[in-house]
C-alpha cells in the first residue's frame, strides 16, 4: 500500500539555541549503522551542515513530534534523518540515504532558499 506523508517546513520554528546535543543510548546507538551503514557522526553532521531542510512529519507525530532533516554529511553524502527532541536533545530514530523523492524535495527546497 502506498501512502503520502505530509511534511511541513519547520526550520525557523525550531530553536537550536536550546538544544544540548544528541541522545544516544542502547536503543539507538548502533541501529543506523546496522540497518543503513550510517555512523552516528555522519547523522550528527547533517544537523550542522548547511544547506539542510527541516520538516515536521505530521503523520508520525501522534505521540510526540517527529521531524525529518534532509542534508549533507561532511563528505557530501545525502542523508534523510528522522528524529524527535527529548529533554533538549536530538534523538535520532532513523538515518539513511535519501531516496529519489527526498533528493528531489531537497534540491527543490535548497533552490528556493537560495533565491530569497
Summarize the structure.
The protein is of the alpha+beta class and 116 residues long. The chain has helices at residues 31-36, 40-48, 100-114, and strands spanning 7-9, 52-57, 67-72, 78-86, 89-97.
What does this structure look like?
The chain is α+β, with helices and mostly antiparallel strands and 116 residues long. The protein has one domain (7-114). The protein is 26% helix and 28% strand. It has helices at residues 31-36, 40-48, 100-114, and strands spanning 7-9, 52-57, 67-72, 78-86, 89-97. It has a 5-stranded antiparallel β-sheet. A hairpin with a 2-residue loop joins strand 4 (78-86) and strand 5 (89-97). The N and C termini lie far apart (38 Å).
Calculate the mean pLDDT score and round it.
84
Beta-strand content: 25-35%
Give the low-confidence spans: 1-8
Number of helices: 3
Number of domains: 1
Coarse shape: globular
Percent range of helical residues: 25-40%
Q: Over all CA atoms, what is the radius of gyration?
A: 14 Å
The class by helix and strand makeup works out as: alpha+beta
First CA to last CA: what distance? 38 Å
Amino acid at each position: 500500500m502506498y501512502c503520502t506523508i505530509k511534511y511541513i517546513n519547520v526550520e525557523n520554528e525550531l530553536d537550536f539555541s536550546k538544544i544540548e546535543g544528541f541522545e544516544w543510548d542502547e536503543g539507538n546507538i548502533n541501529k543506523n549503522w546496522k540497518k543503513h551503514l550510517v555512523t552516528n557522526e555522519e547523522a550528527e553532521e547533517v544537523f550542522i551542515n548547511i544547506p539542510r531542510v527541516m520538516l515536521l512529519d505530521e503523520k508520525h507525530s501522534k505521540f510526540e513530534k517527529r521531524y525529518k532533516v534532509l542534508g549533507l554529511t561532511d563528505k557530501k553524502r545525502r542523508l534523510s534523518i528522522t528524529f524527535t527532541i527529548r529533554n533538549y536533545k536530538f534523538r535520532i530514530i532513523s538515518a539513511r540515504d535519501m531516496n529519489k523523492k527526498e533528493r528531489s524535495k531537497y534540491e527543490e527546497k535548497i533552490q528556493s532558499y537560495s533565491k530569497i
